[in-house]
Amino acid sequence: MTERDGLTERFEAQRGQLRAVAYRMLGSLDDAEDAVQEAWLRLGRVDADGVDNLGGWLRTVVTRICLDVLRSRRSRREDLAEQQVLDQAFRAQESPPEDEALLTESVSRALLVVLDTLDPVERVAFVLHDMFAVPFKEIAPIVGRTPVTTKKLASRARHKLRGTPAVPAAELARHRQVVSAFLTAARAGDLTAILAVLAPDVVRRADPAAVPPGGAAEVRGARAVAEGTAALAHRSRLAELALVNGAVGVIVAPRGRLVCVLAFVIVDGRIAEYDVIADPARLRRLDLAVLD
């Protein structure tokens, strides 16, 4: 085996971990792969024999690459209006290879969406410490902070991810049961089960981008709303529960990219109305958090 072959083998032994770190940092499989590949190129420009802890060195390099990407994104923040419309986003979802599927399924879509709202250094501190148990003293040099300040960054990120419920815990739990039942029924296209959680005079309002061709922006009555929901079962499979403005809601985020949010009003244990929000300006104004 040549020296180069030995280095390649050592790098490949770290690839899975590096990609997992980069994916949680960037929320994109393609960007994560690019970051890992860039780390490999940088490894080729140093004396690897002089690196005591190759895994730690590579993780640091990948993290710094990801931090640069996150800062670049923030400085030239893409306008959500430039994203594909909702139907295009759903059609673009192809079944990834098995190893990619395992990676994407290991992180909830809701978490990726909320991570994307964090400041880059907050995201790095949280991901490395809370998700990969990296000590703050090792994270601090990467983000250019002291260990104490880095710990505060992770704490701030943790608080943002958890959000602040707008209702007491017991009421939040009841609302979660209702929305969860609605989502389960919607995924199955089960008309009877959908009707069971809707108020008789329920109203569903939707932004134009979320309405199928020829569909109505506003639908009234349990039967009409349930039938429309059941017809879109394939979309519901990409949805997850989340905290939306402090209340239990649903986000639709294929591969962690937010395209749609459902905000509910629940009265007496049933859904009295809900909004399907897909307008970029409205999405930006939402306060989203992960629902424990």
Layout of strands and helices, then pairs:
Blueprint: H1 3-26, H2 29-43, H3 54-75, H4 86-91, H5 98-105, H6 109-115, H7 120-132, H8 136-143, H9 147-162, H10 169-188, H11 191-196, E1 198-206, E2 218-220, H12 222-230, H13 233-236, E3 239-244, E4 247-252, E5 260-267, E6 270-277, H14 280-285, E7 288-289
Parallel strand pairs: 1-6
Antiparallel strand pairs: 1-2, 3-4, 3-7, 4-5, 5-6
**Which percent bin holds the helix content?**
55-70%
Largest sheet: 7 strands, mixed
Secondary structure category: alpha+beta
Assembly form of the protein? single chain
Question: Mean pLDDT across all residues, rounded?
Answer: 87
The number of distinct structural domains comes to 2
The whole-angstrom Rg is: 22 Å
- Low-pLDDT segments, ≥5 res: 79-95
Number of helices: 14
Please list the strands of the largest sheet in the order they lie side by side: 2-1-6-5-4-3-7
CATH topology descriptor of the largest domain: Nuclear Transport Factor 2, Chain: A
Q: Tally the beta strands.
A: 7
Q: Assess the beta-strand content as a share of residues.
A: 5-15%
CATH structural architecture of the largest domain: Roll
* Ends distance: 50 Å
Q: What series of H and E elements makes up the topology?
A: HHHHHHHHHHHEEHHEEEEHE
Coarse morphology:
elongated
| CATH classification, class level of the largest domain | Alpha Beta
Keywords: Sigma factor, Transcription, Transcription regulation
Protein name: Sigma-70 family RNA polymerase sigma factor
Domain RNA polymerase sigma factor 70 region 4 type: 109-161
Family: Belongs to the sigma-70 factor family. ECF subfamily.
